[in-house]
Write a structure and sequence with these properties.
By secondary structure, this protein is α/β, with parallel strands linked by helices. Helices cover 42% and strands 15% of the residues.
Length: 225
């Protein structure tokens, strides 16, 4: 498998069921990204994409959004050493103009510092929405003055945020929800899907292995026989 994508769902419910503050669920989920990320890359996955913060997540309480922004900033600053230590590239996918200047700078700096990583790439989807990605791709082609008759799938794929990243082979969503919620709307059209009942903070390396083994047993026909 070249590209694994995960919708990190269930952090808040994990916390509530333990009578903990919501931010404890996010903190535990944040730590699990590193654990599962390393395990996936060691398993041979070349690209791991995680849905960290969607365009719809701004609707949550100001306090919760503020804490999530702090966590994301931490991941892009103090945690850069983790990516350098493990020789991993970091890429941020999403609408950066909607983020604070501080977070935008942290994203730019983290990408530059980890650009030489050779052991794989972790993509953090921050302020990401699949429909917005498509709209921004269209706007980019219009800005470039591209002739409409020359636009094909390959050209369009080069105009969106996931340019240079292969389409995901498998998308996993945790917490029991069975929808994609705008995740990788363009590039995930032929991805295999796996829905886990486990809340993200409890999603283990063992369950990851089970998902990858199940994927290897599937037959992918891409519309053919």
């Amino acid at each position: 498998m070249k590209h694994l994508a995960i919708i990190l769902d269930g952090n808040r419910r994990w916390a509530r069921e333990r009578n903990l503050p919501t931010f404890e669920g996010h903190r535990k989920g944040y730590d699990n990204v590193k654990t599962i990320g390393l395990a996936a890359l060691k398993r041979g996955v070349e690209f791991l994409t995680v849905f960290a913060f969607s365009t719809e997540n701004w609707k949550r309480s100001k306090k919760e959004v503020g804490y999530l922004m702090v966590l994301l900033h931490l991941a892009l600053t103090k945690e850069v050493g983790f990516f350098l230590e493990h020789d991993i590239r970091l890429k941020i996918i999403g609408e950066r103009n909607g983020l604070s200047k501080k977070l935008q700078k942290a994203a730019d700096d983290a990408e530059k510092r980890t650009a030489g990583g050779t052991k794989g790439q972790i993509n953090l989807c921050i302020n990401y929405g699949g429909r917005l990605e498509i709209l921004e791709g269209i706007r980019e082609l219009v800005r470039q003055g591209v002739d409409v008759d020359s636009i094909d799938e390959e050209l369009f794929s080069r105009s969106i945020w996931t340019d240079g990243i292969p389409d995901p082979d498998l998308i996993i969503r945790t917490s029991g929800e069975q929808r994609l919620s705008g995740f990788l709307t363009w590039s995930g059209v032929y991805s295999e899907l796996k829905f886990s009942d486990t809340y993200w903070p409890d999603f283990s390396v063992e369950e990851l292995e089970e998902c990858l083994e199940e994927f290897e047993g599937r037959s992918r026909r891409f519309g053919g026989n």
